[in-house]
Amino acid sequence: MKHKDGKPVSHPDKNSRAVPMAIMFFVLCGFSFYLGGIFCSEKDKIEAKDVAKVVSSPKESSIAPLQIKSTAFPECSSDYQDYTPCTDPKRWKKYGNHRLTFMERHCPPVFERKECLIPPPDGYKPPIKWPKSRDQCWYRNVPYDWINKQKSNQNWLRKEGDKFLFPGGGTMFPRGVGAYVDLMQDLIPEMKDGTIRTAIDTGCGVASWGGDLLDRGILTVSLAPRDNHEAQVQFALERGIPAILGIISTQRLPFPSNAFDMAHCSRCLIPWTEFGGIYLLEVHRILRPGGFWVLSGPPVNYENRWRGWNTTVEEQKSDYEKLQELLTSMCFKLYDKKDDIAVWQKASDNSCYSKLANTDAYPPKCDDSLEPDSAWYTPIRPCVVVPSPKIKKSVMESIPKWPERLHATPERISDIPGGSASAFKHDDSKWKIRAKHYKKLLPALGSDKMRNIMDMNTVYGGFAAAVIDDPLWVMNVVSSYAANTLPVVFDRGLIGTFHDWCEAFSTYPRTYDLLHLDGLFTAESHRCEMKYVLLEMDRILRPTGYAMIRESSYFVDAISTIAKGMRWSCRKEDTEYGVEKEKILICQKKLWYSSKSSR
């Protein structure tokens, strides 16, 4: 037997055949790799160069700015005008009903992401300015008749002509939210003297409670799921009241532990004593030591109210006793009670929690396996998160009162790598200078033209603190992948949330007037594709609203190119320091209507 080249070969065995086959395999692999390189070199020339630039430190001034191809994004269909990607009712059937988990965040996979622009409703126009917006909004901006028909008898809202009016009523405050809060202040004097500054309203309706508290110096996060009441959160934000989509279910809320000074539920229909009291355990976690939990509605005042609740007085009495027992086991004490309102206070020190060490205690104390501030897709555990004994100046009775606490160095800054009193003071001073410069570049900032502001990647809430005297509020967002600085934000008397910008934010379209970024793409572009972050910004930005993008010069031109494809107009400005390595891109979203509009 001869080889193909005519040379004699010895009798082949399995090993001898393997050698030429292995050589052939490597030759073919190398040849295919070569062909692939030829094929891709032209198609992905720009992308390949861009990757090389990113790898070789884009911050260096010698590196040319990132350049990408211009793309004009198409319009989404009108069916998507209220699209909330991670709380989309069209996807609810894929998830279970247990504890309403289908209403939690469930973001679509990458291959289902929309690459189109969300159209406004027919007849949309710029929102009514604050403070008039608290009492009225344009019907065409949130055209929901269902909630009007179902809740008009409770004075949630009322349609008149081309507007929705908000009389300030609610299921538990038929005489108006003002009288309701007046009674609450009588029960909780700390609401009057600056002790209580931040609050969360679970099951917020149209956020009338949070809206009323703004005049009383209390900043509230109104929380509600996307449910059959339709657009509770959208109504709140259209009115200019802070709100976010969310539900207490199986996952922790996106807030750190010991954050809020007060939590409130007004007939929010949360079954507090079911599932071992797990919903109350989450309220306990996010409530500051010494903070207050306020409940109105069943089973409070059951003696006089039970007939209207389709139940018996015995059942309601039993429910109230179970609730009181559960709260006591979590180290809450009944603070005061009158008519339909009951107030409990979380323990200010840890002496009460020693009883949780007993083996038969329920709920038990959480062990150290889960960080108390871990709150991004973190399951709620059936145990009590005991505040760290290191927290002494952050309890209600020790933290400075508002507004002094805004600029006082928070105790928990020492938990942050590199955090210190001097770093905090430097950041505070820096943002005062920056905000002054921003207002020169964008005179609308600080005027009645801007109400709902988001700082998309804050550190200590410096930007929000610098504009605190303006007629606006700021949602401070801390990346779930960044250092945990959100407790410092709350300790200052500001509000915020954890978020991952590789996903959609928990809000409706057209809900913010200004989005502010400070080096977001420098920090996150290795994880999150720039195009999708900007498309998400377009979704939540109001028409005629602005994006103020402070970014490395390496990214600015590429951002501007994508923004142009979203119908934004942008201009590049110098920072307050006038350096070349960093620029400010100011973009305005255009008001446009769907090409299929029936206007």
UniProtKB/TrEMBL annotation:
UniProt keyword Transmembrane helix, yes or no: yes
GO molecular function, one term: methyltransferase activity
Enzyme class: transferase
Protein location: Endomembrane system; Membrane
Assigned keywords, A-Z: Glycoprotein, Membrane, Methyltransferase, Signal-anchor, Transferase, Transmembrane, Transmembrane helix
Major localization class: membrane
EC annotation from Swiss-Prot or TrEMBL: 2.1.1.-
Signal peptide: none
GO biological process: methylation
Membrane topology label: Single-pass type II membrane protein
Chain ranges passing through the membrane: 21-39
Any one cellular-component term (Gene Ontology): endomembrane system
Family classification: Belongs to the methyltransferase superfamily.
Protein name in UniProt: Methyltransferase
